[in-house]
Write a structure and sequence with these properties.
Belongs to the PRA-PH family. It is built from 6 helices and no strands. By secondary structure, it is an all-alpha fold. Helix 1 packs across helix 4. The chain binds phosphoribosyl ATP.
């Protein structure tokens, strides 16, 4: 099983690559393109994962899922949002059913 904290290490790597040479780092190259391009790239990767999910190819979905998580972190980093910000929001929601939350909004 993957280390629970591998996404934390990935985030640290992304932050460390922020000012790296775009010729030698894909991360630095993506971030140098700006928030819009990074968000577009995330959307493309998400669609590739959707395609594998619909096809029912679980190995391909796991690979595309990794691409999605990496490019999600890139989009956050480009937009000035940290992984901790997202985790704090998840923590805040922990224990509240989506059904209860939706009902509280009249849904
Ligand atoms: N997790 C990743 C990771 N996941 C995906 N990718 C790259 O994201 C790129 C996606 O580009 P493309 O859209 O061209 O590829 P594609 O999705 O296959 O699309 P098509 O070829 O079908 O068009 C590929 O080059 C992948 O290698 C990643 N690049 C880097 N990382 C992590 O980031 C670290 C730092 O990488 P560098 O910044 O490159 O040093 C690495 O050590 C990894 O831990």
């Amino acid at each position: 099983m993957a280390d629970r904290h591998s996404i934390d290490r990935l985030w640290e790597t992304i932050e460390a690559r922020r000012d790296a040479d775009p010729e030698t780092s894909w991360t630095a190259r993506l971030l140098s393109l700006g928030p819009e391009k990074c968000a577009t790239k995330f959307g493309e990767e998400a669609i590739e994962a959707v395609i594998e999910a619909v096809k029912g190819d679980s190995e391909a979905l796991a690979r595309e899922g990794a691409d999605v998580l990496y490019h999600f972190c890139i989009m956050l980093a480009a937009g000035g949002v940290t992984l901790d910000d997202v985790m704090r929001e998840l923590d805040r929601r922990e224990g509240t059913s989506g059904l209860v939350e939706k009902a509280s909004r009249g849904g």
